[in-house]
Amino acid sequence: MSVFDYTTQPGFDLISETPNAGTTVDPKEVQLWFGPQHPGITGNMSVQLWLEGDTIKRGITHVGYLHRGFEKLMERRKFIQSFPIVCRMCVAEPDTTEYLLASSLEELSGLDQAVPEKGQWLRTLVMEMSRLQVTLMVMGGQVGTMGMGTAPNWTYTLRDFLLDSFEELTGGRVYHMYITYGGVRRDLTPGFAQRLEATLDRIEERLPYLDDLILNSAVFQQRTQGVSVVPAEWADELGITGPVLRAMGVARDTRRDYPYLKYPELDFKVCTATGSDIYARTQVRRAEIAESIHIIRQILQMMPQEGPYCAKLPNMLTWTIPAGSTYVRAESSRGEMGFVMVTDGSDTIRRVHLRGPSYTNAVTILERMLPGMNIADLSATMVSLQTCPPEIER
Question: How crowded is residue 316: how many other Cβ atoms within 10 Å of its Cβ?
């Protein structure tokens, strides 16, 4: 819960957003809507601000301008029809929610034991590719909020090469619907691994230039060091995960703490930083770019070349799943995501609930940090917390 109860603020009515009758409004205070804007990182969300000069007094996050209502949509469709829906829960990173949907229903149906070895490797591959392309986007978007346009031009270009690989593998650049029940939809195309390796080499070659342009920039350091610090005591109180938590120096990662797919067989480290400010969160994401490249290369070397990639599936139009419930989790680029899934023996989902980091990042943390913040730091703060608004308005 936010530290501010806006319904008790003098002169403010939450419903009409107008002064209450018989109250006075501080003449020095101005109400301003910041957004909704869609830079591709914070998505279609806005922040309603009250300012005195350029200092923020308080604010409220507003989401729901685009995709919404996914949980109820899924509960009214056949199991197979939910894949196009879960992709929209976080447009930039659809593979995580695809895996959560498939894995949760596989567990409840007993199909999890039938997922082939190669299918598990391919799932791990696309989820790590997804993490890499999103982190590149956020890394460039972080400095783009400060008017340093060269960096996002570079990182978005590098991301586009990864989207080329997704298009080759899945048929789609953004929405993939590649992970399905029992495995994945198709095998690697001939020469895919070599082309992906070349893309990884290209990204790796540019990382020192990104370091000079971003982390080593005096301008970026002055704009981010000591800015928007998330206090350590908020970590467990608010259930903070992902880069925001690892920027506090806390090495928590679902891939290691609650192993799934082929991550237990891979050698990787959990990237951390200290400072818990915008700069530290950028340091974590920069380190995770290199770590994802390292993980993808291991997968390409260790993955079997032959073998089935999907189990034999029942008729998807008549498939029923026994009554039960489960919670399946995975590490997205923003932190832990999980599905609470309930079935009742029918051919549709009884109840599904998405647990994602965006609500904590975009609402609880951001609204607590707003009082006293300079408006010039707001956009950079929002990107550093990294949210997907549809994940909130679900």
Answer: 13
Scored b (16 or more CB within 10 A) or e, 214-251 reads bbebeebeebbeebbebeeebbeebebbbbbbbbbebe
Closest listed residue to residue 330, CA positions, set 130, 85, 45:
130
pLDDT in tens, 12-69: 444 444 544 444 567 788 999 988 876 666 778 889 999 999 999 999 999 877 778 8
Pairing of β 183-184 and β 324-332: unpaired
Query: To which residue do tokens 């390292």 refer?
Result: 294
Contact present, 87 and 173 (Cβ < 8 Å): no
Question: DSSP label at 334?
Answer: T
Q: What is the pTM of this model?
A: 0.91
Give the pair of three-digit tokens for residue 336.
């832990």
Structural domains of the chain ordered from first start: 6-62 (no CATH), 70-356 (1.10.645.10)
- Which residues, including other chains, have CB under 8 Å from residue 71's CB and lie 6 or more apart? 351, 352, 353, 354, 394
Q: Hunting for tokens 């095998």 — which residue is that?
A: 187
